[in-house]
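Summary for the steering committee. One of the milestones for this cycle was to obtain a three-dimensional model of the protein with magnesium ion bound, which we needed before selecting residues for the alanine scan. The sequence and ligand used are listed below.
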Amino acid sequence: MSVTQEQILNALRQVKDPDLNRDIVSLGFIKGLEIEGNRVSFAIELTTPACPVRDQLKEQARSAVSCLPGVFQVDITLTSQVRSSIVRPSVAGTGSISLIPTIKNVIPVASGKGGVGKSTVSVNLALALAKRGARVGLMDADVYGPTIPTLLGITEAPTVDEHNRIGPVTREGLQIVSMGFFMKPDEAVIWRGPMLHKTVQQFLGGVLWGELDYLVVDLPPGTGDVQLSLCQLIPITGAVIVSTPQDVALNVAQKAIAMFKKLNAPILGVIENMSAYVCPHCGKRDDIFGTGGARKAAERLGIPFLGEIPLATPIRVASDEGSPIILSQPQSPSAKAFFSAAEQLAAQVSIRAMQGELQPQVKVTF
Ligand SMILES: Nc1ncnc2c1ncn2[C@@H]1O[C@H](COP(=O)(O)OP(=O)(O)OP(=O)(O)O)[C@@H](O)[C@H]1O
Ligand SMILES: [Mg+2]
């Protein structure tokens, strides 16, 4: 006797998404279930192509269904449909979604103090998400010191159409907009709040972004006008806070966290950058700035910890050459650390986006 749909779904109910803390059947992940004799096929539709547990879920689903009597072959396809965290006004922020109707999630990358690696982290996270198959935009909101064009070796200017809308520059699957595209080299921006506000507005609503799963926003350091404008203009999914491991950096990072909380914008997680230094010659580990401080701080504050990025010369060299480590050395330990942090970030976005559907099973408290 042939296996039934009911039996297969019952078996698949044993498979739980560990991030969403629910089984993949009740989450609605199983699509196109077909039974042909002793062959079963279906798709698992994940909430992000960068799901950190995609292979694990596929294997668990395969073994759950393979055990059923009368099943000899199980064909599973992994697909994804990124959910938007900003369609529901209750989720975050005070701004209007009408400015960015085609963008599902906005993720600013922030820090309390300068030079901790926000731009490096932003560009590598955005690339990692794009490499996993997501549609990703990268907005360089550091209008004073835009570095994204240099990090990606971009020299061409974006297009501007007859309605003054900017066509982003495309690189490695990313849609990119930066103030650097509109400045002459060595030109300094000296703007007051209202002008900055207008630029942020223009970079959101005046850009032909197209359909995006994630818009990563590289912020200037600190807690100033750009951060304020962003959170006022649109509902953001949640910020990523970058910190080095030193106590002093962590103390300032807490200020950035406090600012987002004040603006009613969630925090998706903390990334520790310039974590332990591993000597490329002898492999010896040296905790120049200490290590694990950001993880402990995140735990203390009840904020997810997304990962540690080592202090590694190849990261700096790759950035200087306009080909970030994710592109130039995707198999290196540093690139793997970025991929892992990007996956953890994508998982946190999914949790946020599904919060309404998941309650009371998953409670996210920040
Ligand atoms: N993990 C790392 N290992 C080695 N070098 C790094 C690492 N992260 C960043 N850097 C280097 O540190 C410098 C500062 O990084 P970056 O420009 O990304 O910081 P930032 O926080 O964006 O700075 P700002 O506050 O000025 O915008 C750059 O030269 C960059 O290449
Ligand atoms: Mg920067």
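Key point for the committee: The CA atoms of residues 43 and 77 lie 5 Å apart.
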